[in-house]
Specification:
single chain; about 400 residues; mainly beta; 1 helix; 33 strands; globular
């Protein structure tokens, strides 16, 4: 029997309601603002912001080695407008001028200083230092704007997930990207579910944990359902979007839930297949759960508006692409390999759109997209759309419209 995935709001006591907001239902549950968005949002059919194409950086088929990206995954921009692209499949960071001119390349495959093994994330601090999440080397490397290593952060508590650097120098981290949070060996079930997000000091120690998981009473399904995309704003507020739940959240820097929002979706998020884990001898076989996806990435602009990359419809079979992961042992060390699977020649689709929410979780409007997008980033008045699996391209747009002019 299919298990419905819904956002359950349980109130201990009376729930109070605020006035209706033009097709948005807003309620306060246990002191938390909860917004149930309906329709196309307050802007209706005419979004008050527009996207003006500015640059196209990289292509998997580029004849220029410096712009022939393979699985680009993250973008960072410094105060001078220099653009840094984490070219994960090539184990490097490519630096460009604000106008898109290639400037430098940092990194190569390996385990030494300034070397990477399929790095998974990139962030930048106020000084222009780059924080590179390098999970298969069990570390985060901090590089200067010139690419030279400043320090390495090793972790002794848990696996390494994607990390953002906060204004106080601490890091905020999700669960690992490559795979779910799964204990492969037989074990005693923990008394309670772990939190969603960890705050970690510069020495790699956990300071606190943030966010509650939805318990599906099944380890594999629970870990899948609680996958999350994360971003932070300039004030260290935290924003989460859940790919397999109709759930978007904002937290204060201290970890307090400020609001939660959902919206009307044109498809169901019920579990179609719970997946399975089969252990036999020293081997293990995992069949991942099958669920529709609702969110792919999240970003916040200088006005505090929350942008969510979501699906207007589910991808057709011929549009689907994924990353195959192979693990081998050589010389007593585990080696990993990534390979894009599916039709990587496709470039255009009407399956994706951007949803824009205000600072309080109310849906303002949406902007349809005409390309495949895996991640979004916003720096100043620039929106970066990353096509990781197909074109290997970063599309740069200027956000224009009333009250949207913010410079680098």
């Amino acid at each position: 029997m299919a298990v419905p995935v819904v956002l359950l709001i349980l109130a201990a006591g009376m729930t109070t309601f605020t006035p209706q907001l033009a097709a948005q239902k807003v309620e306060i549950v246990n002191g938390v603002r909860v917004v149930h968005n309906q329709g196309k949002g307050l802007w209706g059919k005419n979004p008050e912001v527009k996207l003006q194409p500015v640059l196209k950086l990289g292509d998997i088929d580029s004849p220029d080695e410096q712009t022939a990206f393979y699985m680009p995954i993250a973008v960072a921009v410094d105060t001078a407008g220099h653009i840094y692209i984490l070219d994960s499949g090539n184990h490097r960071i490519q630096k460009f001028s604000p106008g898109g001119k290639y400037l430098a390349s940092f990194g190569r495959f390996g385990q030494g200083p300034g070397e990477f093994n399929y790095p998974s994330w990139l962030d930048i601090d106020a000084s222009g230092n780059l924080y590179v999440t390098d999970p298969f080397n069990d570390r985060i490397q901090v590089l200067g704007p010139d690419g030279k290593e400043i320090k390495t952060i090793k972790f002794t508590e848990g696996k390494i997930g994607n990390a953002f650097v906060l204004s106080d120098g601490n890091l905020i981290m999700t669960d690992p990207v490559a795979g779910v949070r799964l204990n492969l060996a037989e074990h005693k079930k923990p008394a309670s579910l772990p939190k969603l997000i960890r705050v970690i000091n510069p020495e790699g120690k956990i300071i606190r944990e943030i966010g509650d998981r939805l318990d599906m009473k099944d380890e594999l399904l629970t870990n899948t359902i609680n996958a999350v995309h994360m971003t932070v704003d300039s004030r260290d507020n935290l924003y989460l979007a859940f790919p397999f739940q109709n759930r978007i959240e904002k937290y204060s820097p201290e970890g307090q839930l400020i609001w939660r929002a959902d919206r009307k979706l044109p498809y169901s998020l019920e579990v179609q297949d719970k997946g399975s884990i089969e252990r036999q001898g020293g081997g293990i076989s995992i069949r991942t759960p099958r669920i529709n996806r609702s969110s792919e990435s999240i970003a916040v602009d200088g006005q505090g508006r929350v942008w969510v990359l979501t699906l207007a419809r589910q991808l057709k079979k011929e549009e689907q692409a994924s990353v195959g992961i192979s693990l081998t042992m050589a010389g007593g060390k585990q080696q990993v390999g990534y390979r894009v699977q599916g039709d990587s020649e496709l470039r255009h689709t009407d399956a994706y759109k951007l949803e824009i929410f205000d600072q309080e979780g109310v849906l303002l409007g949406e902007i349809p997209l005409e390309m495949f997008v895996d991640h979004i980033f916003i720096y100043g008045d620039k929106l970066f759309l990353v096509d990781k699996l197909r074109g290997g391209t970063v599309h740069v747009f200027q956000i224009t419209g009333e009250s949207s002019e913010v410079s680098f």
